[in-house]
Amino acid sequence: MGITSRDVARLAGVSQPTVSRALRGDPRVSDETVRRVRQAAEALNYVPSEAGRSLSTRSSHRIGVLVSDLTNPFYPHLVGPLHDELEAHGYRMMLFTERSEAMGAAERLTDHSIDGLVLATSTLDSALPAELQRRELPFVYLNREGTTPADAVVVDNRLGGEQVANQLVASGHRHIGGIFGPDNTSTGRDRELGFRQALADAGIALRPAHTKHGPFEFETGRTALPELLAADPAPTALFCGNDVVAIGVLDAARRLGVQVPAELTVIGFDDIPMAAWTSFELSTVRHDLHEMARTAARLVVERVSGTYTGEPRRIVLSPRFIERQTHATPLDG
Amino acid sequence: MGITSRDVARLAGVSQPTVSRALRGDPRVSDETVRRVRQAAEALNYVPSEAGRSLSTRSSHRIGVLVSDLTNPFYPHLVGPLHDELEAHGYRMMLFTERSEAMGAAERLTDHSIDGLVLATSTLDSALPAELQRRELPFVYLNREGTTPADAVVVDNRLGGEQVANQLVASGHRHIGGIFGPDNTSTGRDRELGFRQALADAGIALRPAHTKHGPFEFETGRTALPELLAADPAPTALFCGNDVVAIGVLDAARRLGVQVPAELTVIGFDDIPMAAWTSFELSTVRHDLHEMARTAARLVVERVSGTYTGEPRRIVLSPRFIERQTHATPLDG
DNA sequence: CGATAACGTGCATACGTATGAACAAGGAGG
DNA sequence: CCTCCTTGTTCATACGTATGCACGTTATCG
Fold it and tell me: Can you give the residue ranges of the HTH lacI-type domain (chains A, B) (predicted)?
């Protein structure tokens, strides 16, 4: 079986509580005792049991992170900084990769193995946030936000959508299309909203035949492109829900022999590292993924530690248009 | 504070142990009592505390999975199936993303928050496996294996390397190069070994100026290509340590204006989904990632549950060459 | 009808750690 | 010389669940 603090106590010739205090740096323990306990712990390879500690302190010092699908290249770039920032605050990250926020997710999250949660893939219609609130598990929205009020760290997605629309209009595009994210995500909805609004303000129509909706996945872009190009007139520019979708479009364009950007302008959103690959050189909307993740970590830590107990906070980061090689004036301009 | 089994017991008018038994499906509890307990638990939103359960049963029903870097597209494809298969066996996955198997990793892994571990990124010179063995934490090597004996699920990497060499030779290539993985990984080493052996058997030299080593990352391929092409004569074919490296090479080739496969044949290893994208159409060596992950999950579950207690097992999966569009006969053939 | 078995439930306790309170030993001050 | 404080340690117990064992009840059989 495992080594317990009792074993260490026996070897060091002290009581179990003294072992606990010595190793946790309680100032009431004498230096000499600390030395003896440390030595004994070392000799036995003692590692305190997290289960015991959690039970006793009623806190696990772990923060959950819920993402949907790690094979989507977007999420790993969020998870890394989250891990590091939580670590820096003395918390450990516990990653949950629920495909869907399925039945039972709330139960699994509230079994006291985490003190708080970062929701990175919440949908607007999800029942999970309300359920978490009811069960009093502190949580923070990251990237996407839901309808239940809670701390949130997001990008100004409307502004990003506007920036893209303005760029396209300024470049002379008049047949503009969009492959938007799911309606039940705040990111998908707001990017589309801002984009549509700015186009409308510029007096440019966005035809239904030039738009699609779909999950933020490679396949969405890949399958959408041929369908959109079948429209008459075909769009000369496409705004994609995020970079992963845009890269799917670029991949499909290659397959179809469509020249980008000569025949088609493609714009993404997020500026993940892959967007900068020579194979894609994707024009996109950049925001600071790392900063976003770090901020979310900070907020959730403040919640679980009780450092902050006030009203929900909403941190909004600013996006910026990044011009690369998938962006040009239209042939028929 | 949280709802405990005592609260449920009080509401249902039974004792705490009965609640435990009722919810865990102990056959000794009467149907009527089960019904009452269930109802009370439901009404209170009771979720059993994992910490309490772990402490009492001395097992967490959690399996750790240690990977280095999730932004490497290879790993998410391993993690997904692992998660599902562990789930199917009644275990939960706990993902650890240590950048390095740093000091203290062994301690964090042996704090009894996991019953066993899947090592997906072990290096040959790592001290971690030996340390885990000393601390008696069951573990399984996945994809890569180490020197400390333990269950392992791997690909026949030597055979894969041989297959690539034979293909290149059969296609008429004589100036062949390689961008191999790190020497301290079993995958890097074995693929290189098989490749070199088969070339030697065919009487074809592998010049030092045509080879490089580096981590299994995009950047490795991207930076290596120009250096290798500077050799005289330049290689007409390159075997890459894995797909991610090969995609880095393809990306660099695009930047340099090198035509693939007309001027350069590029071969990868793993057949991750991205290899099949139109943008790459990478010829590669396929093995069953999902099967590999599922098998590792099975082995580690057998270990922690005590179903299997015998000698270490080594499961070897067979690779198969997949011909796509980055593979042709050389111009100077 | 009494002995016995089968069934259902409660009691006591273990798991490993942390912590408030009690306590022992020693030193300072009156 | 007694009191009071300081310092370092131990005692007792809590945390929430699971489980061996004892116990009570009812059905079963001789």
Answer: 3-57
> In this complex, which of A2, A71, A107 lies closest to B47 when CB atoms are compared?
A107
- What is the CA angle B308-B309-B315, rounded to 5? 65
For the segment B192-217, what is each residue's pLDDT rounded down to a tens digit? 999 999 999 999 999 999 999 999 99
Distances (CA, A) of B300 to B69, B133, B137, B144, B311: 22, 14, 11, 15, 13
Q: What is the pLDDT of residues B118-177, one digit of tens each?
A: 999 899 999 999 999 999 999 999 999 999 999 999 999 999 999 999 999 999 999 999
Q: Round to whole Å and give the CA distance between A236 and A263.
A: 7
Nucleotide nearest to B58 (CA to C1'): C15
Picking from A85, A93, A141, A123, the residue whose alpha carbon sits closest to that of residue A313 is: A141
Q: Are strands A265-267 and A314-317 parallel, antiparallel or unpaired?
A: unpaired
Which amino acid is residue B185, in one-letter code?
A: T
Per domain, the residue ranges of chain B are 5-57, 62-155+288-318, 157-286
The answer to whether A55 CB sits below 7 Å from nucleic acid chain D is yes
Mean of the per-residue pLDDT values of chain A? 94
Min distance A255 CA to chain B CA atoms (Å): 6
Residue B1 is predicted with a pLDDT of: 59
Residue type, A184: N
Q: Which residues pair with B117 in a beta bridge?
A: B64, B139
pLDDT attached to residue A118: 97
Residue from B273, B91, B75, B150 nearest A108 by CA? B91
Same fold, B5-57 and B62-155+288-318: no
DSSP string of A107-169, one letter each residue: HHHTSSS-SEEEESS--TT-SHHHHHHHTT--EEEESS--SS--EEEEE-HHHHHHHHHHHHH
Which CATH architecture fits B5-57?
Orthogonal Bundle (1.10)
In CATH, which superfamily holds the domain spanning B62-155+288-318?
Response regulator (3.40.50.2300)
CATH node for A157-286: 3.40.50.2300
Q: Which residues touch strand C (CB under 7 A)?
A: A 1-2, 4-6, 16-17, 20-21, 23-24, 46, 48-49, 51-53, 55-57; B 13-18, 21, 27-30, 32-33, 52, 55-56, 58
- pLDDT per residue as tens digits for the range B59-107: 999 999 999 889 999 999 999 999 999 999 999 999 998 765 666 788 9
For CA atoms B317, B321, B326, B331, the dihedral sign is: positive
Residue B117 near residue B66, CB atoms below 8 Å = yes
